[in-house]
Amino acid sequence: MIDEQGVISIIQSDSWMMEILKTVNSLNLPDWWVCAGFVRSKIWDTLHGFSQRTPIPDIDVIYSIDKLDEKKLEGKLVSLLPDIPWSVKNEARMHIRNKMSPYFSSVDAISKFPETATALAVKLDETDNVILTAPWGISDVIHFGVRPTPFFTENNERMKMYDERVAKKNWQATWDRIKVFTIELS
């Protein structure tokens, strides 16, 4: 098994991932992170012993400030790395779409992702070292567990969204060691 430093090491040793992080870092976005499948898939690929990266439908970039337009930033990233499927989200506004209270920061938004194994993100510090945030830890992702974050276990509507999402994602078809957990709310 790997620990948080191991996760950082496998990302730092991946030139493709580092190019993506350096490209996003060049935009100087406030409170930016590259998150979700970008990190989770790398961990699962590594732990499953895959020699090739599994396809990622998009690269999720988040940041937090009220006045920056996601589509303009997405366009800028496409001009820098056109072969990457960018998805830029301003977490200062995402709470409206998600029908939630405003997030305090990008890390607060990450803590409200549906699954603990996806509530992960990385960015670079001022000397290009990888920083990992995992509000619910990395135990689930390194032990192949997919379970709802505490935020999603607070009500039936969110749990229904979680259940639909994990069924649609069907991660077990790619990574056969994945175990999906659900919680029944009364």
Compose a concise summary of this entry.
The chain is α/β, with parallel strands linked by helices.
| CATH class membership | Alpha Beta
The helix content, as a percent range, equals: 25-40%
- Fill in the CATH topology: Beta Polymerase, domain 2
Which architecture would the CATH scheme give at its second level? 2-Layer Sandwich
Number of helices: 8
Helix/strand-derived class?
alpha/beta
Report low-confidence residues grouped into runs of 5 or more.
none
- Spatially, the strands of the biggest sheet line up as 3-2-1-4-5
Described by strand count, sense and barrel closure, the largest sheet is:
5 strands, mixed
Number of strands: 7
Shape: globular
What is the helix/strand order? HHEHEHEHHEEHEHE
Number of domains: 1
Report what the structure shows:
- With 186 residues, the chain is α/β, with parallel strands linked by helices.
- It has a single domain (4-139), classed as Beta Polymerase, domain 2 (2-Layer Sandwich), CATH 3.30.460.
- The chain is 39% helix and 13% strand.
- The chain contains 8 helices and 7 strands.
- The strands form 2 sheets. Strands 3-2-1-4-5 form a 5-stranded mixed β-sheet. A two-stranded parallel sheet has the order 6-7.
- The longest helix has 14 residues, at 156-169.
- The protein is globular.
- The model has no long low-confidence stretch (mean pLDDT 90).
